[in-house]
Amino acid sequence: MELEWIDWLSVALFFIVSLAIGVWFAKSAGKSAKDFFLSGRNMPWWLLGISMVATTFSADTPNLVTEIVRKDGVAGNWTWWAFLLTGMLTVFIYAALWRKSEVVTDLEFYELRYSGKAAAFLRAFRAVYLGVFFNVMIMATVCLAAAKMGNVLLGLSKGETLIIAGVVTVIYSSLGGLKGVLVTDFIQFIIAMAGSVWAAMIIVDLPEVGGLSNMISSPALTGKLDFIPDPTDLNVFVPLFLIPIAVQWWNVWYPGAEPGGGGYIVQRMLSAKDENNAVGATLFFNITHYALRPWPWILIGLASLLVYPDLASLQTAFPEVDKSIIGHDLAYPAMLTYLPHGLLGVVVASLIAAFMSTISTHLNWGSSYVVYDFYQRFIKPEAEEKELVLVGRISTVVLMVLAMLFALVLESALEAFQILLTIGAGTGLIFILRWFWWRINAWSEITGMVVSFIVAIYFNVIHKKFFPDLEAYEVLLISIAITTVAWLTVTFLTRPTDEEKLVNFVKKINPGGIGWKRIYRKISLAKEIHFQTGEMYNKSKIPLGLAGMLTGTFSVYSALFAVGYWLYSEVYLASLMTVISVLSFFLMFRIWGALRKIYNSER
Hints:
By secondary structure, this protein is mainly alpha-helical. It contains 27 helices and no strands. Helix content is 74%, strand content 0%. The longest helix has 47 residues. It is a multi-pass membrane protein. Belongs to the sodium:solute symporter (SSF) (TC 2.A.21) family.
């Protein structure tokens, strides 16, 4: 499908605005590495929250959701909906702790929490492992989606699409730093959301679909509309719902949904003015990401089943498309070809916005690891600020090139998503417990990281080739079990973190919880606080945080289902879910108010 001049105008204007923002903030971003990576730590919650949402709205997300809906129905989305539990845990417990740590990157946390050479090694290795290897894999999935979009909508090859989009993204990311990324994210989020909602409205009303009510009642969607899979069919219920909601959310590390917070989410929280802004940004992100944004993608995914019921129909409709990228995730860009000119240009610009917002964030985040946690910490500690900014800009370019090269060998967004889940399987519990149990040490994390990676390589390369008999959820459970046993064993066989380091950590962070009881007593004996009634220890903080997490999760899921039931025209259930959601949100904000008083008293 060819774009007309009005479509190209929308795309061109978007590119011009993005580049202008990068140039505008280039001078302020270049003052220091902290300005480049943290925007001076004075960002408001609303801008940070929107940036988090914009980052997770990547070019591969609509493709991923479409593939999930086509294969497993609406209920298949629990594979990522379950991470709301992780997100709310971060909102009500970890966001304030991260902001109080005052680290520049979340990897700096290792030498704040652990001691000795093991802590230094962990920081250096994770800088390369996450900032380069893992980060490149994530960006490659986004690049793959962009390549599919460009192939279907613009007739461009993989390489042409990646070069055009990649060059523009690298320019404004390397010039404007995090502040440029945040402001661009704000504009990109508005364009991306408007484009996806508008596109869904037009596509659902296509003659081939017949309107919302006709689509919902179509026999072709039988079994695809349920929010929760049939519990009597264990072959479906267990992998699609039970595993994600019972195990995956707390025991799997995945970017943007890390147990205990991490990555670019932590980078945004560390950029906030204070703890309250860090919490507010993360809360806004989780509400918008899970309750409001999924439905336009889901509706287009359902509509695609009426227009392109199988892969053969996609291949027939797009014979010129490279056969290596034909998959269910291709159905999303395929449906966009039905949009009228004018709107098509806006939607293409919105998809470019989604691509650029995600890639720019990952480039800035990954280069922050390279600069702070590897180059400055281990290569050249005396490096001046301008040199650090230069290294950050060079690493931005290198990461983009590596991501584009790796994208050429990927075939499916869902395939990449499952590989990433497997690599992080079994490590999530470490990231939760390290804040609340003194016994976790650097060797716990090193073991979890190494073992989970080895297990992932085995299952995705060796076992898959010779014994292709396990389902994805079975691989996940086995990986979690092996990794967890390994790191727990090593935790108890190795020496704990030096007591002085633990005492200093508790004084700075004041995490609370019975897992630190031994350290709080140590501080109490030194007469720095009175353990039972003292100024630091607050028994209500953790229970309040967990209550906020549960009510927040309940309120967002209720809102998610309410929107769905309204779309399905099931008025009674829609009204019930709406009322439950409103009441839950009211209770959640009351809990947040109580927590804010505690945070303010701890300053």
